[in-house]
Amino acid sequence: MGISVEEGEWAIVGGTGQFAMGTGVIYKKFHEQRSDGNIIELTVHGFCPMHKGSRSLPTKVGPWGGNGGSDKDIVEAPRRIESITVSSGTIIDSIKFSYVDQAGQKRTVGPWGGSGGKQNTFVLGTSEFVKEVSGTFSLYGRDNHNIITSLKFVTNMKTYGPFGQAKGTTFTIPVQKNSNIVGFFGRSGIYLDALGVYVHPL
């Protein structure tokens, strides 16, 4: 939509088919005048939400840590993390989180790990998302297994942590500019042995 001018902008206010609910801007620029009509240049920047049927699924990245404990994972594909609870002292004892799945249902997972440590809970704002997770893992305990010893979460607004004590091998899980971390998977027993993430486009 917009008035017809030689140079300027039009607004994209909708679409059909796969581009239903489209929005954006079209930039119009005069290019060349000819006897059989003018040539204009259009630069289109259009955006549209994906339909439910064509929604992409998140991908797994990782995990990092040890191979002790048992596998931990989520049942429904995640769309957005709402809150994270980390219990820690000198190591990461457990992690618990709530997320919204692809169908819009809120789900709570965990705790994965033991009951020790001090609980730290943070709730993400409506426009806040996790863009990086980092931490360390090291040999620990009588069994001398690798476990997660520290965790830090970076969102588009702030940093949470580090929780635990940064000792051992470091790892960082950044995501691409137009993606975010929407859930976790890993391994746990009496501690959090390993942690990986689900990544999804914004």
Automatic annotation (TrEMBL):
UniProtKB keywords: Lectin
InterPro entries: Jacalin-like_lectin_dom, Jacalin-like_lectin_dom_plant, Jacalin-like_lectin_dom_sf
UniProt xrefs under SMART domains: Jacalin
Chain ranges of the Jacalin-type lectin domain: 58-201
Any GO molecular function: carbohydrate binding
Pfam family, any one: Jacalin
Signal peptide: none
Family: Belongs to the jacalin lectin family.
PANTHER family membership: OS05G0143600 PROTEIN (PTHR46506)
Protein name: Jacalin-type lectin domain-containing protein
